[in-house]
Amino acid sequence: MATTVPIAYQGNTSASVPDWLNKGDNAWQMISATLVGLQGIPGLMILYGGVVKKKWAVNSAFMTFYGFATVILCWVIWAYRMSFGDQLLPFWGKAGPALGQKFLLKQAALPATTHYYKNGTVETATITPFYPMASMVWFQGVFAAVAVILLAGAVLGRMNIRAWMVFVPLWLTFSYTVGAFSLWGGGFLFHWGVMDYSGGYVIHVSSGIAGFTAAYWVGPRSKRDRERFPPNNVLLMLAGAGLLWLGWAGFNGGDPYAANTDSSMAVLNTNICAATSLLVWTWLDVIFFKKPSVIGAVQGMITGLVCITPAAGLVQGWAAILMGILSGSVPWFTMMILHKRSTLLQHVDDTLGVFHTHAIAGYLGGILTGFFAEPELCSLFLPVTNSRGAVYGGSGGIQILKQIAGGAFVIAWNAVMTSIICIVVKLVIPLRMPEEELLIGDDAVHGEEAYALWGDGEKYDSSKHGFYSDDTQHQRPYSGATDAV
């Protein structure tokens, strides 16, 4: 008896695969977005959970988990349009939803510039990726979520979780969207030609400055925690760091908005700079402190990834190595030497040093982009044409000034707006946990603990979060053949 093989249902192919859709670009964009998302959860979530003191493991991980979810929802309801929609102000877009089917299924497009040079050429080209707007919304949404999670690193171990729950949507709305629109969404820095390939300013400088500012307003950890804050799980921290490193392929490789040659160059440069920076930081630790620090190596990796981000697809490989040398040494100096001598830096309790690893490294990378941006690579990156770094002569020197000014705007806006947000939240909810919660940690804040190891001030209450009855908990543990005898 003959059998027939049914043809797989493919839906309305003419509608689901329009002529303008490039399946390869769309697939790469969704993969890139997912890689970036994995940097936040589980990457930074388990990095934070491992690098902090045991009693703060759950709270630190939960702050990232909650922050990610909050940003994604706010992003599609109003924040995406504020970052990439129609202009409201030269630095801000109009709020609006990014949820409708007609909006999400149309071809993605970002605002075109109308700024022309005297010879009639356009300074920045129109960006029209060959995939749906839904891919763009998701891709940019995970970027925003990671920025919030990076900010959290500065206030771990003492910020009131309820205050954090209110802080996240406010900071996304009034701080992050301004940098995103100004540099990427058609705002005044975009038109002026400031180069930020993948978020050195939009993500890292903003989160580093905002984190440092929030840390000032929240106040320091308890004296005991500040004096002794050992990682509870170094291997878990390294697992998170590994996810962060490899996830950066989506962070920088997805920002040409296409699976093209510039994307490949960006991914390679990212890994070159990160590896160089890690090695430089490690050797500086060996030379000056006699031991290679695992935490130091992770810090060096992060500063390398951050530094190359604004330049990833705009510089050649030799420049990526030089940037790695500087990203492994300049933030090392500010963190290990300058921090200990600065009254201001000592006063502000930045738990994980995001000021150094993100604000300093991000600003350094943005300025170095002004030095090393290669003209031909700039022309491959759609938002930037007629641009070059200082080492290539011509108008390159002006580019450095643009980079410095663009970073200064992001710094100033985040310092002021984050302060305002913290002051407003403080009027309603205390920014800092009460002393009894600071003493106990996760068990007092969440009623849960990371590990079944009791001590360090924590209290266990089986009636609230135990899985076994009292009788079960006190049974003699199974010991193999001896029980059968």
TrEMBL record:
Q: Where is this region: Disordered?
A: 465-485
Start-end of Basic and acidic residues biased regions: 465-474
Q: Name one Pfam family in it.
A: Ammonium_transp
Subcellular location per UniProt equals: Cell membrane
Limits of the Ammonium transporter AmtB-like domain: 27-451
The residue ranges crossing the membrane are: 27-48, 60-80, 137-156, 163-189, 201-219, 231-251, 263-282, 294-312, 318-339, 351-373, 404-429
UniProt keywords (A-Z) are:
Ammonia transport, Membrane, Transmembrane, Transmembrane helix, Transport
Instruction: Look up and give the membrane topology term.
Output: Multi-pass membrane protein
Q: Name one GO molecular function term.
A: ammonium channel activity
Q: Which GO terms describe its cellular component?
A: plasma membrane
**What PANTHER family does its record include?**
AMMONIUM TRANSPORTER MEP2 (PTHR43029)
The record's similarity note reads: Belongs to the ammonia transporter channel (TC 1.A.11.2) family.
Q: In its UniProt entry, what is this protein called?
A: Ammonium transporter
Q: Which organism was this protein described from?
A: Vitis rotundifolia
The organism's lineage is: Eukaryota, Viridiplantae, Streptophyta, Embryophyta, Tracheophyta
